[in-house]
Amino acid sequence: MPDGFTGKAVSLTWPAERVAQATMTRAAEMNTLTLDLIAELGQVLDICTAEKARALIITGSGRAFCCGAHLDYFTDPNSPIGKSQFEIRDNYLAKIAALYDRFESQAFPIIAAISG
User: Which of 9, 36, 43, 93 has the highest local Cβ count within 10 Å?
Assistant: First the structure.
């Protein structure tokens, strides 16, 4: 079985042969879409593609699967995504859109395991 992966916001395990499970691990922040989480989900897709995964299960830790945008980015004057609408689009929203496009183009199914 392939090695797992543990990042700042996502961990990857292989619960069955060629079946990957990515767990968003930022429970205290309700697994919001931080730049780290977006990048690490991209890494998970790279690993799954390289390992010829048959399926990817994505789940969240804590009480929320994923609460969407990381709102602190929009209120922090020193936000890493910038201040203007164009910076926010280019530095944050475009990265989310690119990740979702990658989800749609995978050769394997991606399953959201949402509790509740």
Answer: 9
